[in-house]
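Running co-folding for S-adenosylmethionine.
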Amino acid sequence: MNYRHAYHAGNHADVLKHVVLLAIVDALKRKDAPFCVIDTHAGRGQYLLQGEQSGATGEARAGIFRMFVLKGLPPVLQSYLKRVQADNPVGALVSYPGSPLLAAQAMRPQDRLVACELQPDEARALSLLFKDDKRVTVMARDGYAAIKALVPPKERRGLVLIDPPYEQQEDEFVPILQALKDGLERWPTGCFALWYPIKRGRTLQPFFRKAARLDCKSLLRVELLVRPDDSPLRLNGSGMLVVNPPWQLDQALGPALPVLARLLGEQQPNATLDWLKKDET
Ligand code: SAM
């Protein structure tokens, strides 16, 4: 599958993923010590919403376009919008920043980003985007293998974002769980955030049962459904599973989720946040 046509930049799933990503990065900035973000499936970093890269632009119309100019939203949404607006300085929404660009924009001079992308064309575009940013390293390599090689980062603080294309549907969870196990063995306190699509929700239960057995302190699940999760053919929603989330991430995201459901929902939308494992210490 040519991924570029399958990926609908700026849709509801991107909004959820990027809001959570930036909320984690903001939480990491509470301390002055540097941190490292490892983006295992980084993409090209920037997508034109009006052109070939937008896939079905309709998907972004039901996503970022519905919120781009809104004001007075909960802080995590406002801070996400500020980043998307920074990428569209003229005011019209023409370009959508991907995860590595959003992370790099939110990082400070002392922080670092390693972005892995397997597709040569996408990796080239990403390298070009960051050619003048010394904080960013782009690697044209397999993101799962990179986890084994790159964690723990020397900073011992940071985030691993895992955002695979799920070309293998639910079989993708096999390398994902292995990568999380490998990552946690090397970096038990590391924060790992995994994005997953929701078509028919109940098919995800075996994955959650296995994830709950991971050797980590805590596991937070954040989901946004824009319509009931009863059709295997449509992307009805998505989720972020955050392993070892930063302190109070749940509280930062909590007020934003019902707002997202209201703004992006189509039919019986629902947003939830729950703990698959909670640190009681
Ligand atoms: N994380 C990006 C964002 O939020 O803007 C979007 C990434 S997109 C969902 C997934 C990307 O993973 C695609 O660009 C694809 O080429 C790349 N990819 C697929 N398999 C990969 C692998 N094993 N390692 C690294 N990248 C991979």
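Result summary
The beta strands are 36-39, 46-48, 95-97, 112-116, 136-139, 158-162, 191-198, 219-225, 237-243, 270-277.
Residues 3, 7, 17, 41-43, 98-99, 116-119, 122, 142-144, 163, 165 surround S-adenosylmethionine (CB under 6 Å).
Job closed.
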